[in-house]
């Protein structure tokens, strides 16, 4: 019995001396996932479970995706707070970790899930030469992900006609036009993006199909044409002379 009690006490002592750090957040996290939005403010507080014992100067360290975050010295002992203000879309998926200095195995992390709308709300003027290709691009990065619809002159674009091709890798959505023709491709296009959180956003493209610019130099062409005309002229003259000769001999 005495041995058992002794072992239990020993265990209890051992358990109460297991070092740990915990991270609390405002707003509160769900487990280790903190849901927030761009432009918001998040406060993280890291604490040791050892209480304020001045004899044990427990220093805490912060890491953002593995990179050290510098905090003032007075904000490192027993309790350390970090303020993320404002939250940006670059903070999405980022892991903030607090650890005991000198013992990396005593750590606690929190992961950011940052909601942000796509950065779209503008108009692009585009000039495309007849028979050349064009690409209309839209930045569709957003959290949660969005759906994309292409429209032309107010109607959903029929992708089976007009030699259109679309791609979307979650970062950029593109509409490709092959061999632009004015009567088919000129008009106002819209890349319409739908977000379950932020609603509808769009980028407009005013596409003008221009006449093909002559690319070859005009000077040599004219002299070339002149040379050909002269040759033909000389040929006709010499022929006429021959004919004349013939008629003379006749
Ligand atoms: C955090 O602690 C755990 C468990 O003690 C350990 O396995 C892990 O390697 C530590 N993480 C870092 C980054 O040191
Ligand atoms: C889009 O841009 C227009 C004009 O620049 C502005 O008035 C409008 O508030 C913007 N909308 C969004 C959702 O940013
Ligand atoms: C785009 O084209 C439409 C229709 O031709 C026109 O009303 C609008 O002003 C144009 N937008 C810009 C920004 O030039």
From TrEMBL:
Residues 1-20 form the signal peptide. Keywords: Disulfide bond, Glycoprotein, Immunoglobulin domain, Membrane, Signal, Transmembrane, Transmembrane helix. It is found in: Membrane. SUPFAM superfamilies: Immunoglobulin. It is a single-pass type I membrane protein. This is Ig-like domain-containing protein. Gene3D superfamilies: Immunoglobulins.
